[in-house]
Fold each of these.
Amino acid sequence: MVLGMALLAGSDAFLKLASQLAPVGQVMMMLSLGGTALFLTVAWLRRVPLRRDEMLHPQVLLRNLFEIVGAVGMIVGLSKIPLSLMAAILQTAPLLVTLGAALFLREPVGWRRWAAIGVGLTGMLMVIRPFGTGFTGWELFPVAGVTGLAARDLVTRVLPARIPSLAVSTYGFAVIFPVGVALTLISDAPLTADPRIWLHMAGAVVVTTAGYLSVTAAMRLATVSSVAPFRYTRLVFTAGLGMAVFGERPDGWTWAGAALILAAGLYSFLRERRLARAVAPAP
C-alpha cells in the first residue's frame, strides 16, 4: 500500500510536469489514450468482454459523468496550484465518501463520524482559505475534482456485480478523451509537440498503472483494516515531491489544515473498524 501511494504521488507529479508544457485538454487526451489502450490490452489478454449494454447502463453512465468531473477538476488543479495543496485536498476523499454514503446510500453514521467529517472539511478550508488574500479561485477545481471522485466511488458501490471491474475502469478512462478534445477546441492554447510531454505522460500512465496494481495486491494480500490507514502516506509523498521537484514551501496554515484532515480521516476509519467489530458475529 505504501508503494502504491508513492507511485500515485509520482503520477500527480508527472501530470503537473506535463501540464506545464501542454494545455489541459491535450494532457487529458493523452492520459485517456494511454490508459484506455492499456486497459483494452489487459482486457484482451484476460478475455474480459466489453459489452455495449454494460457501457450504456445508467449507473455506468453516471459513474462516467463523475469520472469526468473528477478528471477535469484534478488535472486543472494540478496545472494551477501547488502540489502540496493538492495533496491535502486529496485526503478529504474518504471523508466525502462517508458523507455521501450517509446522505445518499442511507448508511448509518454516528455523531462522532459526523464530527470527524466536520473537522476534515474545516481542515480543507484552512488549506484553500477561500477568503484569504492568496486565494486565486483555482483551488476550487481540485475541490470539485475530489468531490467528483468521491461520488464516482459511491456509484461504483452500487454497480451491478455482473459488470467486470476491468470493463468499468476502461469505460472511465475512455470517456475522458472527448472532454479533452472539447477543452482543446475552446482553448486558445495551441497543442505542443515537445518531446518532454511524451516522457511525462508515459511516466504518468506507467506509474498510475503500477500504483493501482500495488494497491490491488495490498487489498488482496491483507485485510482492509490493516492496510487502509497507509493510504494517507500519499500526503507525505505528494507534499515531498512538491518540495523536491517544484520547490514548494507549504505555509503553516497548509500544514495545520493537512494535519486536521489526516487526523479526521484516520479517526473516521478507526471508528468504522471498531463498529464493524462490534456487530460482527462471534467466532
Amino acid sequence: MSNRIDRRFSSLADQQRAALIPFITAGDPEPGWTVAIMHSLVKAGADVLELGVPFSDPAADGPVIQAASERAIAQGVSLCTVLGIVREFREQDPDTPVVLMGYLNPIERYGHADFARDASSAGVDGILMVDCPPEEMVHLRGELDDHGIYPICLVAPTTTPERMSSIASQARGYIYYVSFKGITGANRLEQANLEKPVSELRAHCDLPLAVGFGIKGPESAAAVAGLADGVVIGSALIEQLAGSATGQQACDRASDFLAPIREAMDNSRL
C-alpha cells in the first residue's frame, strides 16, 4: 500500500528533483500560526513537511529545537494538539506528505491503537521517533501498518553495514540519514564526508535517502541535493521563525527562508 510519501518521491524522481523537507516544531512560535506556516512552506517549495511533536526531554535535539519545544509546551501543545494541526492543514492541502517527528513517550501515553487511528484520520503519513529503533517498535508497528502510516527510520554515521540492511528491511517511505554524530543544529555539513556513506547506504536500501543535520541554507542544501533524494532543514528555519511578532510575519519569514533553498536545490541538478 502506497501513501503520499511514495507518490511524492516518485513524482520528484520523474522530475529529477530532490525533496525539500523542512522541519518545524508544532505550536512554535504560536500554536495558532502553525497551519498557516505549513501552507507557506509548501508554497515556497516544500515537498514533505516534518512536524515536530513537542517533548519535555528532547535528548537528540540541540538548543534551538529544545527551546522551540519548551515554548510550545508552555502554550499547552500536546500530541493531541499536533494531530488537530494536521487535520486542519488537510482541509486545504490533501497532497503534501506530513511526517511527525519526535519521541516515543507521548505515543505510549496516547496509546498505540488510538494514536495510529487518530493520526491516520488526521492525515499523518509517517512518524520518525529518534529514541525508538525498529526492534523497539514491534507492538506499535502493527498498528501503524494497519492504518497506512510509515515508520521513517534513522541511519547514522556509526551505523554498520549489517545494521543498515536490518533498518532498510523495516523502514518505509524514506531513510533519514543523520549527516554527523551529535545533536540537531550543530556543526556544518561537509559534502565530501557524505559521498561515501550515502553510496554505502544506497547499496543496502532501495528507499529514497534524505539527509539532515548541519544544513543551514542554499549552499549546503544544494550540495546535499546533488547526492541525496531529500534535504531536511530544521534548526536554521526555526531560528528564522523565533521572535516573529505576528502570524503573517512568521509566514513571510518561512517563505523568504525556504524559497532560495528550493531554487538552489533545483539549480544544482541542471
Amino acid sequence: MNPVKSLLGQTAIYGLPTIVGRLLNYFLVPLYTSESVFKNPADYGVISELYAWVAFLIILLPLGMETAFFRFFNEKEDKDAVFRSSFITVIGFNLVFFIVLLFASQSIADAMMYSEHPEFIVLLGAIVCVDAIAALPMAKLRSENKALRFSTIHFTAIVVNVGMNLFLMLVVFDPEKPMEGVLFILLANLLASCVKLVGTYKDFLNLKLNYNKELALEMLRYSFPLIIAGFAGIVNETLDRIMMKPLLIQAGNTPEYSLEQVGIYSACYKLAMIVTIFLQAYRYAAEPFFFAQSKNEDRNKVYIKIMNYFVAAVCLVFIGVSLNIDIFKYFIRSEEYWAGLYVVPILLLANVFLGIYYNQSIWYKLSGQTKFGAYIAIGGGVITILVNMIFIPLYGFVASAWATLIVYALQMVASYLLGQKFYPIKYNLRKFGLYFGLALGLFFITQIVDMDPNEFTWSKFIFHNTLIAFYIFVVWFMEKPNKLTTNR
C-alpha cells in the first residue's frame, strides 16, 4: 500500500475522534468566557495559569517513555519486556511524585498566591499523574494498530470532561463564587483522565513485576534528552502565562489587572491552537508511522511528500482563521477578551512554524541523536525567558506572542540545518516557500485592504474566502490528486 495513503488513513482513524474530541473540549472556552461564568478575565486567568503548570508536568512525569516505547518496540524482540519495563518505571516515578506533592501542597499554593486553595494543587497533581500513567497503555494500543479502541477511550474521556463541565458549570456553579468554578473544572478533568485508566485496565491486571532494569535504563538514556527537549519546548509554549502575572505585578500593576492580562491572552491563544488540534491528530498517527518507515529504502521520498502536504495544510489553517477572525472572535463570548485579538495571527503563524518543526524532528528520533532535540529546545527556552522577562513589563502579552513566533521560527530553521548534516532529507524548499509565501502574502493583502479587520461585512467575507479558495486551487494544481496515488 502507498505509504502516504497509509499515513493519511491512520491520521483519519486516529485524527477524526481526536479532532472531534478536541473541538468538544475547545467549545468549553465559550462557556468559560461567557457572561454567566468567567465574565472577568482575571478568573479565567486563574485556570490558564494552573493549566500552564499542568503542561510542564505532563512532559516530565511520563519520562519520555512514550517515544522510547515506539523506538524499542520496533527494535526489540521481547516486546512485552519493553512495555512492562517502561510502564513500571512510569508508575513508580508518579507514585513517589504524588506522595511528595501531597505533603508540599500548602507550600506550593502559598508560593502561587492561592493560599486558600491547596486543593487546586492536589487535584492538578492527581490529573497529571493519572495522565502520565495512562500514556503507556494508550501508546501500546497505537503500536498494535488498535486505532478503534484507542480512539474510543480517548473520545470517551473527552466526552466525560465536557459533560461534567456542562453539568457543573451550568447547573451547580454559582457565578458569585468563581474559585468554586475552578475547582469544578479540575474535578471534571480528573474524572475524564480516570476514563483512560478504566479503558486500559487489562494492562494493569496483566502487569507482571518482572522488571528488566537494564532495558529500562537503556530506554531512559534514550528518552532523557526528549524529556529535556519537551520540557524546554513547554517553556516556549506556556511559560509566558506563568511569567506574566509576577512580571506585571513587579512592573507596578495590580494582581487583578495582571490576571486579566493572562486571561485575555490565554483566551485568544485558544484561537491560534486550531493549528495545534490538527497537529495533535497528525502526530498520533505520524510518530509510529515514521518509525515503521525507517526500514523502507524509499523512506526519504515519503518524508518529503508528507512535508509538502503538511506545510500546505497548516498554512491553509493559518489563512483560514486569520482571514475570518471577525467570525472566529465570537468563539470567545465576552467582549472583555477581544482586546487581544490582534495577536491571534502572530500566534497562528508561530504554531505553523511549530508544526513544521515537529514534522522535521523525526530526523533526530530516527537517528538516535535525541540530544539535538534537547539542544534546540533549550536554546528556544532561553530566548523565550529572556524576551518575556525584558518585554512583558513594557508591552504585556503582545511581547509573549512575538517571543513565541521568533522562537518557533528559529527552532524550525535550526532543526532543518542540523537535520541536513546528520540525517539528510532533501525537502522541497521551493514548495515550502511557495505555500508559506502565498499564505503570508494573502494575509498582508487583507491587512492593507481592510479598514477594520475585526468587523464582519459580507463583502469582506466573500473577498477573504475567495483568496482562501485561490490558495487551495494553487495547492491542488501543484500537487494534483493523481500524485497522491503514486510513489514518486
